[in-house]
Each structure stands twice: as C-alpha cells, then as structure tokens.
Design a protein that fits this description.
Helix content is 25%, strand content 22%. It is α+β, with helices and mostly antiparallel strands and 484 residues long. A seven-stranded antiparallel sheet has the order 17-14-16-15-19-20-18. The chain has a five-stranded antiparallel sheet with strand order 7-8-12-10-11. The longest helix has 14 residues.
Length: 484
C-alpha cells in the first residue's frame, strides 16, 4: 500500500540550501592561512561594504544569468511550495560548475542577499532570496559511484541519487521525497527510512567542496578545514558557504528490504502512540518506523516503516507491537531501490505549513493526540531515531539530537490565499504538544528560540565557525547561523 501524499514529506529533509550546493569538481582549493592547529581562517574581508547593486551585465558575461522579465525567469525561481511564488530574486545564476558559484559570489557578496537553491524544498522559502541573488545549482547534478565512494553534485535530486546507487549495488541513507536535493538534506543531518540501520546522510559524508564567502573553493574533510567539515554535518543549509560537491561513503545495498504499513481502528490513537514509544527503542536497528496521527474526530493512527531483512523476520518484530494494539497489516518484500520508490510520493507542488519538535523521551500520548483533534488536513508525524543515529555523540557532528526517540513534524495543508490560518494552527499545535527541540530541515520562522531548538549545545561552536568563514554574513538570512 502506497503512503499518502503528505506522509512522504515527513522525510523530505529540506531546508534552505543557500550555503550548500553540490557538484563534481577536481579543482583543489587554495589553502588558507592557519591561525591554530585544526582551524583555517579565510582572508579577512574589508570593513566597509561595497556600495550599489551588483553589475549584472558583467556577471552575465561569466555566468548564465536570468533577470526579471527574461524568458525562463519565472520558472527558474519556482520552488516546491507555491506559497513562495511571490518572492522575486533580483537575479538567478544558473551554476554549472564551481567557478560559476565563485563568480556570482564575488559579484554580489555584501551587495544583495545570496542563497543557493538545489531541490527548492526550503520550508520557509529561504532558497528564494527576495531582491537577492539565487544560485541555482541544479546544473551540478552528477552522481559518480566509484567503489564504496559516491561523488554527488549539489543539484542532484534523491530520485537520481537512488537510481545511480541502486544500479551500482550501493546504498546511502537519505530522505524519501524524490525531488528533494541532496545538499539541503545532508547539511541539515538527513533523517531517512534507513537511519536506524545506517545512520544519517551526514554520517556518511567524507568530504565536501565548498565556496566560502571570500570566493575560495575549499575542500572540507576530517583532515582539511575540520571545523567547517564538522559544521556541514547537521549545521543547516544556507550557512558557511555554497557546497558544490559531496563525497560520501556508501554501503553495499541490502538485497532485501521489507516495507510495511499498519492501520488501527478509530479511537486507538493514544494506545498506538503509547505502545510505539515503548516498542521502537527496543526494536533491532534493522527496523525503522514512524507513527502518524491524522487530525480529525477521532484522531487517526497508522504506523509505517521498513526492515532491512526478509518479511518473516519483520513479522516477528511487528508482532510485538500488534500484540499490544490490534491493527491491519500490509507487508511487501522488495530490493533496496524498490523500497526507496515505495516511500516516494508525488513530485507535484504542494502548499503547506510545517514545523517540528523532538521526542527526547516518551511523551504523554493524550497530549499529542488532543493537539490535533478536530484538525482535518493536519498530520503529526513522529519519525523514529535511535540505532546507528545514537551511536555517534551529539557533539561529534553538528546534528545535536542523537539520543532522541524521534523527530516530530507538524504538517498542515495550506490554502495559498489564506495561509495564515494554517500557520496559526500549526503554531497552536507546536505549543500544545509541550515538546522542545526542532529539526532544522523542517525549518520554521516562527519557532521560538530556534537556534537552541535546532542545534542544542552545538550552537556556540557553530557561531564560531560562522565567524571564521562568513564574518560579514554574506550568506545571512532570517535563521542563519551568524558569527558569535
């Protein structure tokens, strides 16, 4: 049974990519001077910002550039959520190689806002800088699989990443929405349906090529620019620079992945959520599952997921849940690529409002179900964590929520003509469920104390990285990590 169109969005893992893009390049970056062991500092920028708008005509001689009124401009600025169709970048640079990104940044830095756009799934529309320069990195979309490594361009979409990896017999844990870009997903951490077995997407990052605010193309890895490399693994898209290429470590693709969907009778949502919170942390890491509460009267409940293994072994794990709360069961045994396609949904644009919280410990089921009671068109989705995600310490990467049971997404359909209704409703639910934290790939401009919610105790270190690599806030936006 296919997941509903809203359900697949839970793992989109999309945020502003305005600091991360991805494309293959063999050009080695120039090494910056070193101020202390393990810390690289870019050349200092001038104190006085340049005056006047960028010279778009001069930039057009270097990069394919679209300006308002040009043929193709309206389509090029369009992103997944129609709510942001009214935003109007001053220019769109169609970047096909890292040099295009460098030229664009050098022309526009500190003159207008700059943001990169990969998949265009930023929940807040941050990849469409109103009056600024959009760096469209869709032209850097190659996926090159070589042995246990995959070099993936920032503009690659997940559907293409999975297709290339599957054909090569390799696996990278990532999100489920097919049109999400690899860049924003990775930079925010990358929660997906294989996370408990293989970890987050960012956990497989070996290195990244990135153009920083000074226009330099650098390689961030454990050996080169280690602080920047740390920040790129969960520090959020839109920050620190524009990634042009990711190199990932991949695993052998599992030969069998069993997917499942459980549906429960009306009125059982409290029991389902209570048992799910006990069941998942005790389940083997081969199993991933979510629980979805559908707003209405009464609140609906379903559990979906997958198991790296055959359907017989999956059945034994599911019995431990359905033995406590009865429901109907659908199971399919697929290969890796088939399982990824199972979780994908429509690529059609969707108008929505969403936010997130983190399930750090078991919550009162009644509090969560009552928050969405009577709210048709709204889902509360809890995506499981644990397993391999928790094997890494919270401070070892920028992704803070390593020890959580799951991430909670509050997702509502929205009428583009009256979006404020959905926005207010989501905010009421976020406040009503009484949970803290947040997942930066479900970025929300209205989230209180968002810096702490997304990054926890890693926020201070991220601010230091921003001070090193973007002291003048070249990549600043409403929820950017800024120097501190």
């Amino acid at each position: 049974m296919k997941l509903g169109r809203r359900t697949f969005l839970k793992l989109a893992g999309a945020t502003a990519v305005g600091a991360a893009a991805t494309a293959c390049s063999s050009t080695p970056p120039a090494g910056p001077p070193t101020s202390a062991p393990g810390t690289s500092l870019p050349p200092s920028t001038s104190v006085t910002p340049p005056s006047g708008p960028p010279d778009w005509a001069a930039l057009r001689n270097k990069v394919s550039l679209l300006l308002p009124g040009d043929s193709g401009y309206d389509g090029a600025k369009r992103v997944f959520n129609p709510a942001f169709d009214g935003l109007k970048p001053a220019a769109i640079a169609k970047c096909a190689e890292p040099e295009d990104v460098q030229a664009a940044i050098e022309a526009a830095a500190r003159r207008v806002p700059i943001a990169a756009r990969s998949g265009g799934h930023s929940y807040a529309g941050y990849s469409v800088p109103d009056g600024g320069l959009m760096l469209d990195v869709g032209g850097m979309s190659s996926v090159d699989v070589q042995g246990d490594r995959a070099v993936i361009g920032a503009g690659a979409k997940l559907k293409d990443v999975y297709a290339k990896l599957g054909a090569a017999g390799r696996c990278l844990p990532a999100g489920s929405c097919p049109s999400v870009g690899i860049a924003g997903l990775t930079l925010g951490g990358g929660i997906g349906v294989l996370a408990r077995k293989y970890g987050l997407t960012c956990d497989h990052l070996v290195s990244a090529q990135i153009v920083t605010a000074d226009g330099k193309l650098r390689t961030a890895s454990a050996e080169s620019e280690p602080e920047l490399f740390w920040a790129l693994r969960g520090g959020g898209g839109g920050n620190f620079g524009v990634v042009t290429s990711f190199t990932f470590r991949t695993d052998p693709a599992p030969s069998v992945v069993s997917v499942f969907s459980l549906h429960f009778p009306a009125g059982s949502a409290n029991d389902v959520l209570a048992e799910w919170q006990r069941w998942l942390p005790e389940a083997p890491p081969e199993l991933w599952a979510n629980v979805v509460l559908s707003g209405g009267s009464p609140v609906g409940a379903r559990v979906s997921g997958c198991h790296v293994g055959d359907s017989a072994s999956l059945g034994k794990v599911l019995d431990k849940l359905t033995g406590k709360v009865k429901g109907t069961r659908t199971v399919k045994q697929l290969d890796f690529l088939g399982a990824m396609k199972y979780f994908s949904g429509s690529e059609s644009r969707q108008s929505f409002v969403a936010s997130s919280r983190i399930l750090s410990e078991p919550a009162d089921p009644a509090k969560l179900t009552s928050a969405v009671s009577g709210r048709r068109g709204m889902d509360l989705l809890v995506d499981g964590l644990g397993g391999a995600v928790a094997d890494i310490a919270p401070e070892d990467t920028a992704f803070w929520h390593r020890k959580a049971i799951g991430s909670v997404q509050i997702y509502s359909q929205a009428d583009t003509r009256n979006r404020s209704v959905a926005t207010d409703s989501v905010a009421e639910v976020v406040n009503g469920i009484g949970l803290g934290g947040g997942y930066v790939n479900y970025i929300d401009p209205a989230l209180p104390d968002w810096m702490t919610a997304y990054y926890g105790n890693n926020a201070t270190r991220l601010k230091r990285v921003a001070k090193t690599y973007d002291p003048d806030k070249v990549f600043g936006f409403a929820q950017a990590v800024t120097p501190g």
